[in-house]
Amino acid sequence: MNRWVLDPGSNAHVCNTRQFGWSFVRKAKPGEVIYAGGQVVQIAEWGTVVLNVRTPSGKAPIKLTHVALVEGFFANVLGLSRCRPLGIHFDSGRDLLYQNNPSNVVAMLEYSNGHWLIDAEENDRPELTIVATANEAHQLWGHASKQAIDHLPESVTGFELVGDNKAPKWKDCDVCIQSKMTQQISRRTPEDTNTTPFYRVGIDLVQLLPQGEACYNGDKYAFHAICHSIKWHEVTTIPNRQKSTLVNVIKALIAKIQRQFEYTVVVFRIDSEPGYRELLYDVCKELGIKIEARAADTPAQNPNAERAGRVIVERGRALRISSGLPKELANELVITAAMLLNITPTESLDWETPYQRVFGRKPSVAHMAPIGCRAHVLDRKVKRGDKLESRTMIGYLVGYDSTNIFRIWIPSKGRVIRTRDVVFARQHLMKNDDEPEKLSEEAERLIEVLDIPTPQALIDIEDLLSPLQKQTYEENNSLTQNDRNDAETATEKDIQFELGNLDKEFDNSATPESTIRAVGEINTKTTCQTDTRTTLQAVIGMVWSGLV
User: Fold this and answer.
1) Architecture of 192-359 per CATH?
2) pLDDT of residue 535
3) Which residues cross the membrane (predicted)?
C-alpha cells in the first residue's frame, strides 16, 4: 500500500520503501524490530520522510523523524503516540490532526476503507525517485552496458545515481558473460538512409524454448519488430506460427504505430523465415507497404533485425539468470527486455533513449524495481471476517504494464497477474529467497513447543457440573442391567422398523403455527434448566419448564 495510514496504536513511524522521499540516518541495530500482529520484523534502517499533507490553507510538507524502514511492510504507518510530545492530537470526528488548540489544524485526513490516510492524493505528491548505485542500476536495467548506465541520469527522470563506483564492463560481470557470450566477430553494418521513425521496420521471429516446451501460458515464439532509425523495440509473444495468428499480430503492430506513435510504416525488412514471408506479402500488398526480403542464409542482408533479436534474447536471458525466475516465464522476460531497451540510453542516438525519440520527453523510471524481486500483493479474496489471515500473496516482479500497473508471477497459482496494490522487497530476489524454508523450520519448532492435548486428556463434562447437576445427570443417564441387555440384543429388523417409521414421526413435527405458539409461551415462562442427557459428555441443549 503506497499511502500513509494514521495508527493510534503504533508507537513508531514505519516506511515500507526507500522511494517515498526516504533520507537515511543510520543502520538499524540487531534487536531493533517491529511487532506486527504475530510477526516480529527486523528494521533495516532509520531515517526521515517528508510528506505532503492537506491543510486548511492548501498543501504543505511535514517531516517525520525517527522513521523505521521495513521493506515489504504492507503499509506506511504514522504512529500517533510519537506526535503526542509535540502537542499534536487526533480528532476522529473531524478527521484531522491539530496542535495544542483544536482550531490549530495541522493536517486534514482522508477516511478510506476504515483507515485515516494522512498523505495527500497521489497526483499531489512529489515525484518518486529511484536512488541506486551503478551496480544496482546495471541489474535494474537488465545488465545494460557500462556506457548506458553512465548516461542514465541525463537520459531519464525519477532516477539518481549515487556512489563512486562505475558499472561493470560485460566481461567483469558473471551474468553478462553467461548471457552475452558469443563468437567475437567485428563487422560494421550499413546505416539506413532514411531516419524517419518507423519508416523501415525489421521483423524477426524468435523461438523462446526448445522444441516441445512452452511458457506458462502456452506461448512458444516472440514476434520481434525494431525501428532501424531510433532502435525502438516491439515484442509480442504467440503460441504458434499459424497464418491467422501472424496476421493479427502484424495488423496490431501497424495499427499501434499509426495510432499511438503517429508514424507510418513504409518498409518491412524481413528474412526468409518460412511461414510468414508469403503471408507478409499478402498483408502488406493491401496496406501499400513495401517488402525488403533477404536471401536465405544471408543474415548480413538484414543485420539490424538479426542483431536486435539477439539483444532481446540476451537481455531476457540476463534477467532470468540474475533473478532466478523459471524458464517458463521466458515470454514475460523478453517483453520486459524490450521495454528496458526502449528506456536505455543508446550511443547511436547521442545517448538519448528510444522512448525520448518517440514521445519527445524523457521516460520516468521511478516505478521500477529489480526483476525477480519479491512482491507482496494485496489479496482481495480474503474473507472480511477473517481478521487474522494474511492480507497479501507472495509473488515476484516479472514486468510492467504501465508506471503503476505491475506484472507479478504468483508461484502458488502458476500464473501472472496485473496489479497496482503491491509492495516490493527489493533486496530479496527469487533465487536468494529462502523464506519458504524458514517458514517450514518455524512451523516445525512451533509443533514441538505446542502441547496439543490427546483425546484421552479431554475434560469430562461431569467435572464442570455442580452437585445438583451431577445428581440430575446420573439419574438421566443411568440404565439397569436389563436395559443394557435389551439394547445389546436389538436386531437389525427392529432397527429397520424404527427407520421405516421416520416419515410418520416427521408428520407430527412442529408447524409454523405451533412454533409461533411455543415462542409465545417462552416469552411468558422463562424458567429453564440444563439438559445434560448425553452419552457424548457434552451439553446438548436447554429444556424449558412450565410449557404445555
Assistant:
1) 2-Layer Sandwich (3.30)
2) 42
3) none
H or E stretch including 55? strand 45-55
Q: Which residues of the chain are under the pLDDT cut of 50?
A: 126, 183-191, 300-302, 305, 435-459, 491-493, 495, 498-499, 502-507, 509, 526-548
Give 157's DSSP letter.
B
Pure H helices in 56-187: 134-140, 146-150, 152-155, 174-180
Which value, in Å, is the radius of gyration of the alpha carbons in the chain?
35
Cβ pair 124, 59 in contact under 8 A: yes
Distance CA 444, CA 454 (A): 19
For every residue of 401-446, DSSP letters joined together read: SSSS-EEEEETTTTEEEEES-EEEEEEEEGGG--HHHHHHHHHHHH
Q: Hey, what amino acid is at 146?
A: K
Identity of residue 138:
H
Q: 314: which residues sit within 8 A by CB, 6+ positions away? A: 179, 180
Q: Say what the pLDDT of residue 195 is.
A: 76
Q: What is the pLDDT of residue 320?
A: 92
- Check residue 477 and give its pLDDT: 58
The residues spanned by each domain of the chain are 4-126, 192-359, 373-449, 462-544
- CA dist., res. 68 & res. 89, Å (int): 21
Domain 4-126 belongs in CATH node 1.10.3470: no
